[in-house]
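ASSEMBLY PREDICTION REQUEST
Request ID: AP-0331
Submitted by: J.K., bench scientist
Number of chains: six
Total residues: 420
Priority: normal
Notes: Please return the full assembly, not individual chains.
Input sequences:
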Amino acid sequence: MSYVNIKVTREGVTDRQKAVLIKGVTDLLAQVLNKPPALTHVVIDEVELANWGVGGLPAPEFRRQSQQSK
Amino acid sequence: MSYVNIKVTREGVTDRQKAVLIKGVTDLLAQVLNKPPALTHVVIDEVELANWGVGGLPAPEFRRQSQQSK
Amino acid sequence: MSYVNIKVTREGVTDRQKAVLIKGVTDLLAQVLNKPPALTHVVIDEVELANWGVGGLPAPEFRRQSQQSK
Amino acid sequence: MSYVNIKVTREGVTDRQKAVLIKGVTDLLAQVLNKPPALTHVVIDEVELANWGVGGLPAPEFRRQSQQSK
Amino acid sequence: MSYVNIKVTREGVTDRQKAVLIKGVTDLLAQVLNKPPALTHVVIDEVELANWGVGGLPAPEFRRQSQQSK
Amino acid sequence: MSYVNIKVTREGVTDRQKAVLIKGVTDLLAQVLNKPPALTHVVIDEVELANWGVGGLPAPEFRRQSQQSK
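STATUS: Completed
Returned structure:
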């Protein structure tokens, strides 16, 4: 049994992409740890950009500064 | 002190049902572990069907295949 | 499908008590939301007392002060 | 490296307030544990009032009763 | 930026297997959503068998019954 | 009401440091969002280095490579 929670920023992730993530993670756990897919649950959380911080800044500001420092 | 996070698919759970879940979990922790309700927090997350995977498939596809295999 | 995470302080919770919590939460989700038990996963985390804070204090200190204010 | 998840009720938290929370938590981890901000991620979850329970009651009802008992 | 939490039962997962999981999930997010690996954090939680429930039973009992019903 | 989960690597964080984190986060939520400390819970998780990945590598290997690239 396994439970995987994937958090990414909410930026137009499509249902097709979600399906590929779910399949990919489930297969990985089956291959590496022999986990049966029927007992593997995956939950994807899409987080608003303003609600994600890194480097002490909200994501939009973090990206702006990363761009400028290039 | 206790913290419980309940994740279910977003499919029209009513406020009344949420209240029953909150009451039920809080009572359970009080009965089994003597946890004071005032220090028990419960957070319910409703997850879009496309964001929940089991058996390597998004929930809608998982259900479709489960139906067919009956 | 449902996923429940229960966090309590690590204070000698027995395997029997854990089994009762697992059964109780799974039954609650079946009764209230008609969730099939086979697709309900419950994970219990036991947290060291020093790692849990409430009221701005670690649990041991919080309890000491709660006792004194009675 | 650090990861912080802040859950609060959804009640009009502004982007400015979110930025202050992200900055504050990141600075705290840098000061207390010497964690480099570039490796500190903060995710804020805003939870609907009906989905948060304390004292065995959903937040709106909990607040109503807390008011009355004053 | 992405954050992935993988929960599996504590049953002798090796550091090598953990490294393969971390690499696999990070590559998946890079391929599917173009997420930069430097901003992808993965945390693996190993959960005691008695602390994981499925089908209303702790994992050891769930497995015993699954074996018998074959 | 608020719930904060802080995940850091397990590297000898002292009880004193945990108390400062708990106090700091609780005060921050009180100042920024007017959250009453009595309803703010903080849980600190200490994660084994081998169980934390960033940049596609477990933390020990990530640090080794970061050192070399300086």
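REVIEWER COMMENTS: The CA atoms of residues 26 and 37 of chain D lie 6 Å apart.
SIGN-OFF: pending second reviewer
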